[in-house]
Amino acid sequence: EQRLGVCVGDVAGKGVPAALFGAFTSGTIRARAFQKAAPKEILYRANRSLFRRAVEGLYCALSYALFDFQANEVRIVNAGLPFPIHFKAAEKKAEQIVLPGFPLGLFDNVTYDEVVIPAQSGDIFVFHSDGVTEAWNGKEEFGTARLAALVAKHAHKSAEDIGAEIEKTLRNWAKKHLANDDVTLVIVRVV
What does pTM read for this prediction? Predict the structure, then answer.
């Protein structure tokens, strides 16, 4: 099949309990992904499982995307993670995919909105944790606008090289300030 599932998550909390909750969340999503349901249905089912096995204070913000390269489209659902960035090659423009949703494990029977976006050759999709946009330089956060501009500036490069440019820019941005949060990036470039 010409399909690719991408899932990026960020568990609230620290230590062993958060790590175990993250592993359980990952396993729950993976098991449901093989059922070939729509992404919004996968998150609905996963959320119900996580809520029923809730650990107080733990939840998972997550984005899930299903790329269908035969149909030239991607279906995206979001559960509280920062909005993904989409660079549209035809327009040479990067912007957020605004898709709100509650993190997994907080509330029962939550439904999730799903968007279907054309995935054209040269398009780039950037999924990231809040550690990217909330990177602090002592005066201000890095922010979504800087991230989108950086993706657009380096859109001619490979996904790996775009990731390296983002990482380098974040390091220079934060300089002496230690990261308060993890930084997670998954970049998909449509060929």
Answer: 0.94
Residues, the chain, total?
Answer: 191
Question: What does the pLDDT read at residue 175?
Answer: 83
Looking at 2-94, list the stretches that DSSP marks H as alpha helix, in order from N- to C-terminal side.
15-33, 39-52
Q: What is the DSSP string of 94-146?
A: EEE-----PPBTSSTT----EEEEE--TT-EEEEE-HHHHT-B-SS-B--HHH
For residue 153, the model assigns a pLDDT of 98
Classify burial at 84, counting beta carbons within 10 Å of its beta carbon; exposed 0-12, middle 13-18, buried 19 or more.
buried
Query: What number of H helices and E strands is found in the chain?
Result: 5, 8
- pLDDT of 131-158, one tens digit each? 999 999 999 999 999 999 999 999 999 9
H/E element, 187: strand 185-189
- 136 neighbors 177 (Cβ within 8 angstroms): yes
Q: What is the rounded (10 degree) CA torsion for 100, 104, 108, 112?
A: 30
